[in-house]
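Note to self: keep these together.
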Amino acid sequence: MPYIFGVIVIALGLIFVIFIFNDTSGKTDGFYNESMVEACVTRLFEESEVMHSGTLSRKQYFVEFVDKFSKRMIFPISHKQFKTLTVGDSGMLSYQGYTFLRFIKEGQNSAISSQWIQAIERKVGKKCRFYAFAPSMNLLVSQENPVVITVDQIKSYVDQMASSSSACSFGIEDDAGRAMHFSKMQSHRLFSMELPDVLLKGSYWLDEVPVIQVKQLIDMLVSKENISNVYQLQFVSWNSKVKERINF
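Structure:
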């Protein structure tokens, strides 16, 4: 009897370990990866935490963001970070699960000097407007103040972003105003593509795009080809996209 009881206990323990492993492994692709999104600071607040003695207390600082999909997120931050933020600030938010990583305000292109911009703008070849958020490459160009660079230069950045283990995003726009936005999750080599259509008030989407296809799509946009017809992309209205992501 003691032998059978021991076997049962070991079996139950193994089942529990397998269950826990399967449950957490499914989260590694999403919750534990670095995510980034355009967001705005909507609230800053602090709370006092009473220590065990009952007399001393320390302050904890928090920030609330609302992203472009109307999703609300609250993160604990340091006092130093707290002092740098103001309600109404907008920019690019990076976070990992419930952990705040960084917030790059609009116009903070400190990683790109004016000399660098002038140098790449002098290069010869087909050009288009380019913006990017790739902190691991020190490449921070806001969407509101894009730079005009050659397609070849953009492709070289695509290779670097693909080989990077960090999350990143970038976009291009041609002379006619047609735009294309790409984003990549942390540790992935595949991109997601969004092709906005202002007239239809929505975007065409393409997921799991390899590097070589990203470059082909860039060439197609610059050559003014009809990308949505070639790739038979799925169209999603912005209104529907927002409704899917609302999470108060």
